[in-house]
């Protein structure tokens, strides 16, 4: 699943480079990247166990 998401982001980045409207392409790429980042973060929180402890874990790292 991670490789598919990474391939999707790479394809989106290539598409953004060749787009006729770079503003919209960059915006779409940013929305996609944000969604993938949230998906990956929630997956890592699921591995930690408790959802309440996950937020404490990430706050201490930043």
- By secondary-structure content and strand pairing, the structural class works out as mainly alpha
Number of strands: 0
Distance between the termini: 27 Å
Largest sheet, in brief, is: none
Query: How would you describe the shape?
Result: elongated
Q: If you compute it from the alpha carbons, what radius of gyration comes out, rounded to the nearest whole angstrom?
A: 15 Å
Beta-strand proportion: under 5%
Domains (count): 1
Instruction: Classify the helix fraction into a percent range.
Output: over 70%
Secondary structure layout plus pairing:
Layout: H1 2-17, H2 22-48, H3 51-61
Helix pairs in contact: 1-2
What distinguishing features does this structure have?
single chain, 62 residues, mainly alpha, 3 helices, 0% strand, elongated
Any overview of this molecule?
Helix content is 87%, strand content 0%. By secondary structure, it is mainly α. Helix 1 runs antiparallel to helix 2. The two termini are 27 Å apart. The mean pLDDT is 82.
Concise overview:
This protein is mainly alpha-helical and 62 residues long. It has helices spanning 2-17, 22-48, 51-61.
């Amino acid at each position: 699943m991670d490789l598919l998401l990474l391939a999707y982001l790479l394809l989106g980045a290539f598409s953004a480079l060749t787009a006729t409207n770079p503003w919209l392409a960059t915006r779409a790429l940013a929305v996609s990247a944000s969604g993938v980042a949230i998906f990956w973060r929630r997956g890592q929180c699921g591995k930690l166990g408790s959802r309440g402890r996950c937020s404490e874990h990430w706050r201490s790292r930043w």
